[in-house]
Design a protein that fits this description.
Low-confidence stretches: 1-7
Helix content: 55-70%
Mean pLDDT: 85
Distance between the termini: 14 Å
Largest sheet: 2 strands, antiparallel
Shape: globular
Order of helices and strands: HHHEHHHEHHEHHEHH
Length: 192
């Protein structure tokens, strides 16, 4: 399995992806193997449907939103291996030796940007009450009443909105998340 993947990826491509994402050689070949197994059209790219076949995303209430974020980087309806790896890299644990690295693809700031985009449904760089409600509904389904959801959305905006425009900017979102350990909460351990 790993040998097939390394045959299809050139060593220089693997090295470029390593530099860009921080994944190890073994992780890249394993993820390439996973990528090719998801690529039902065998065209070197994944569609939304291909990504939604990942069991962890299929059962996740926010799976559709996560999948949508794979496609924000490009305008295509397909994601190539490099785009796939760049998105997955956001979920790599932060390297404790590079905690001050704000430019890394998996830095705290990049993880916050990714989380913010989960809520910013219309991509206008602001989270409105309606967007917050839609995401809350995705997360909790019918387990909480509309009144309770509205109360949660109102309280969240009241606490995070520092400029009084009734919406949450990325800066306000980041400030509200200051005490959150987003580095751990948005990390997935990838096998070596």
């Amino acid at each position: 399995m790993g040998s097939r993947a390394s045959l299809l990826l050139r060593q220089e491509e693997i090295e470029e992806i390593q530099r860009e994402t921080g994944f190890s050689h073994n992780q890249i070949t394993r993820l390439y193997s996973r990528f090719t197994s998801l690529d039902k059209g065998q065209n070197g790219a994944l569609s939304r449907e291909d990504l939604l076949r990942i069991p962890e995303l299929a059962i996740n209430p926010l799976g559709e939103r996560v999948v949508q974020l794979f496609f924000l980087e490009g305008e295509d309806e397909q994601v190539n291996f490099r785009q796939y790896m760049r998105t997955l890299a956001r979920f790599r644990p932060v390297d404790p030796n590079q905690k001050n690295n704000k430019d890394g693809v998996n830095s705290r700031d990049k993880k916050l940007e990714f989380a913010f985009r989960m809520y910013d449904l219309d991509q206008d760089s602001r989270i409105s009450r309606d967007e917050l409600l839609q995401v809350l509904r995705m997360m909790v389904g019918v387990n909480i009443s509309e009144e309770q959801l509205g109360s949660i959305a109102d309280r969240t905006i009241l606490e995070a909105d520092t400029d009084g425009d009734q919406r949450i900017s990325f800066e306000e979102f980041s400030k509200a998340m200051e005490r959150s350990e987003v580095e751990q909460k948005m990390s997935v351990r990838f096998l070596d």
